[in-house]
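Handout for the seminar on molecular recognition.
Each group receives one record of this type.
Step one: identify the two inputs.
Step two: read the structure output and locate the region that could contact zinc ion.
Step three: write two sentences on what you found, then compare them with the reference statements printed after the record.
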Amino acid sequence: MRLIPLGGLGEIGLNMILVESGDDLIAVDCGLMFPDDELPGIDHVIPDFSYVLGKRGDFRAVVLTHGHEDHIGALPYLLREVHAPVYGTPLTLALAGERLREHGLLEEADLRPMRPRERLEIGAFTVEPIRVTHSIVDGMGLAIRTPAGTVVHTGDFKLDPSPLDGELADVARFAELGAEGVLVLCSDSTNVDRPGHTRSEVEVGHALAERFRGAPGRIIVATFASHIHRIQQVLDLTARHGRRAALLGMSMQKNVVIAAELGCLRVPPGVLLPLEDLTGLAPERQVILSTGSQGEPNSALALMAAREHKYVQVAPGDLVIISARVIPGHERTVG
Ligand SMILES: [Zn+2]
């Protein structure tokens, strides 16, 4: 049995690891990397698929752990070259499907939903998804049984004892696997080498609520478009304070629609307005939920900060909240 990482070790992004046994080859995740400011003119960095392309007859499947771009974003570039089923939970598949649609690959794609603890037989492997909590909902770790032994891949995780949707990490299942015996544990998550705990999403909600209470005028919140629970908290606070919200940024708008359709997000009735209607309200009734928390050039927040946004000019009395940790490597653009 071989584990062949094509990226994602010791770097942020490009997450993709191959598991190979005899004539069977599967991939866990297929992510891209966002270029830093040392790669001007580059849109996406993708893993080097040569090894897969050289064994395309043996390639059985891609199994996605969760819907972050650094785990699904390179999928269109792979499926352009090889045809294989893609397994993932409903939200992950919906987000991956959106990427495939953008590349005109959705029609021919073979997307197969998977559920926690439900075993998938793929070639020589049995793959069992195990629920983890993370900064995106519907995230899974994987137990991959191979002829040589069990590989446990934790996926990314942010262990949260009180996740917004009540779906706890299935720690018990990991413990059972540990007792059974694990050949290899693959585990990595951003900032995993920093001591201490990340705060629960519920605690973040309390901090956000405090900011909302004290805000005299318009509130602009930038966060990850994939952070459905954070978006939920902002929309709930908006409704509770009698405000209205508009979504800025293509990915924010798309993800809110996808997550609401899947029932992962409950949009309080009447709370969302198109931007042009929102800006007609008094500032103290406005909330703008925006992309660009990493200072990405051309994102809504970057344009607002540079006074180059077509419709939104930041004014005295506005409160701007960047509700996201800085991804290592983006300190300068965020600053
Ligand atoms: Zn992630």
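Reference statements: Residues 66, 68, 71, 134, 156 surround zinc ion (CB under 6 Å). Residues 31 and 73 are 5 Å apart (CA to CA).
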